[in-house]
Design a protein that fits this description.
The structure holds two protein chains of two kinds. By secondary structure, chain A is mainly α. Helices cover 82% and strands 0% of the residues of chain A. Chain B has a single domain, classed as Four Helix Bundle (Hemerythrin (Met), subunit A) (Up-down Bundle), CATH 1.20.120. In chain B, helix 2 crosses helix 5 and helix 4 packs antiparallel against helix 5. The chains are: A mainly alpha, B mainly alpha. Chains A and B meet through helix 6, helix 7 and helix 8 of A and helix 4 and helix 5 of B.
Chain lengths: 218, 220
């Protein structure tokens, strides 16, 4: 099982390395939205608006990134390939890969975004922790939802409809945590919120671990 | 579930809660005044919604254990009835908010939570309609239903407790449970909760039977 997970993650990384345009398009998305934000706010932005806009950009980048996760797995050849692997290993590997991808993307957008719009965050360690936990929670929910959406005809449209309400508490919590990080410079200022994020992570991974085999068996 | 006694019990309990809720003495509180009687109708809707959604999720889990299609129909019937109860809860809450907080809608974590709960279950129904194949529709929607219920509990159970809310019991507001909900009110409130849950189950049962008849008609 762990061997399978490792191999599947490595496979995804290799595939992504071979077709780099997907990654580049996501980075370009982050860059262009940050620049649009910079132009529309003319460089002067309220602290709270900074936080809200940052997480909205991250949310849409994440949805774009995870939308395609099960696209390749739907043709017959890949289906045969996956009869060799345990469905639980598949979902764990996908979640791990997407988490890594999203953590990278979110950190990159944090960099680009603060380049254009300044960086009002004072509690840096808490914020980085919040970014890491938040993007992996985003990834684990979105991976399962994209698996669900891949079973329907209208993939892209349904993905937004299904995932947006599910991600709402997460987004609310992320914005709240970041706003706490604005005010004070204390290492574990947002302990409760970070704990909630970690629990949400565990809960969504557990749910996908339990439910995905039923989705896979077609 | 074929017997009649629980349906009669449900009707009696709701009749009792309407009469008792409008006539029994209630504590006189600032701002709330007589609108506190809405507690018997507004909060009970949420209780019955959560229970109906719970039953819906249980049916979905039972569906995944053995792929019996009737379980999926039951899950849908429970979910749509719970959705209706939630809508009623939202409407009664909006009227109550107008008379106590001054507007129909405020930016309150509980209200946001319920609004998004509605959106989640609407998405559930859209998901059901967008899959043609009956087998995969039942399976995919059962999975989404379980996910939706867990997320709903996070919304209206955990998240509002972490932030300030205008609702009683959160962020320094006095809770009904502490001292406002006195024994007089409890005597109406709990029977009303049980009554609405029973009625909700009854409505869901009727919906399930209608749906089954429709399916049988299509297949014959």
């Amino acid at each position: 099982m762990f061997y399978q997970v490792k191999e599947l993650v490595l496979k995804d990384i290799r595939l992504n390395g071979r077709e780099r345009n997907a990654l580049y398009s996501m980075l370009l998305y982050v860059l262009s939205t940050s620049y649009v934000a910079y132009l529309s706010f003319e460089g002067v932005i309220d602290k709270h608006a900074w936080v809200a806009l940052f997480w909205i950009i991250v949310l849409f980048a994440a949805m774009n990134a995870c939308l395609q996760s099960f696209k390749k797995e739907l043709n017959e050849q890949a289906l045969f390939f996956y009869t060799l692997a345990n469905p639980r290993a598949i979902i764990l590997a996908k979640t791990l890969f997407n988490s890594g991808l999203l953590i990278f993307l979110t950190l990159a957008s944090y960099l680009v975004y603060s380049l254009f719009l300044g960086n009002p965050i004072t509690a840096n360690i808490s914020f980085i922790l919040c970014v890491i936990l938040g993007s992996s929670a985003l990834a684990s929910v979105l991976t399962l939802v994209s698996a669900i959406a891949s079973k329907t005809n209208n993939n892209a449209g349904l993905m937004a409809v299904l995932s947006m309400p599910l991600l709402f508490p997460l987004l609310l919590n992320l914005i709240q945590t970041s706003q706490i990080c604005l005010s004070e410079n204390n290492l574990f200022i947002a302990g409760n919120q970070l704990l909630f994020l970690a629990l949400l992570n565990i809960a969504s991974v557990l749910l996908s671990y339990l439910l995905f085999p039923y989705l896979w068996r077609d | 579930m074929q017997s009649k006694w629980w349906k009669i019990l449900g009707i009696l309990l709701i009749l009792y809660s309407i009469i008792g809720g409008l006539l029994f003495p209630v504590p006189q509180l600032n701002i709330l005044n007589e609108t506190i009687r809405n507690l018997y109708f507004h909060v009970t809707m949420w209780f019955s919604m959560i229970f109906l959604m719970l039953f819906s999720m249980i049916q979905s889990i039972r569906f995944l254990n053995g792929f019996d299609k009737t379980k999926d129909t039951k899950a849908e019937a429970f979910a749509s009835t719970g959705m209706f109860m939630g809508l009623l809860g939202l409407l009664t809450g909006m009227v109550w908010a107008q008379f106590t907080w001054g507007t129909f809608w405020v930016n309150d974590p509980k209200l946001n939570g319920t609004a998004v709960t509605m959106l989640i279950y609407l998405a559930y129904f859209i998901l059901r309609n967008s899959i043609e194949n009956e087998d995969s529709r039942a399976r995919v929607s059962a999975i989404y239903n379980i996910l939706a219920f867990v997320m709903m509990i996070v919304f209206i159970g955990i998240l509002p407790r972490m932030t300030d809310s205008l609702h009683p019991g959160n962020g320094g507001n006095p809770a009904f449970g502490n001292y406002d909900l006195n024994s007089n009110m409890r005597m109406v409130f709990y029977p009303a909760v049980i009554g609405w849950i029973l009625i909700g189950v009854w409505v869901a049962q009727l919906r399930y039977r209608i749906k089954t008849l429709e399916i049988n008609k299509e297949n014959s």
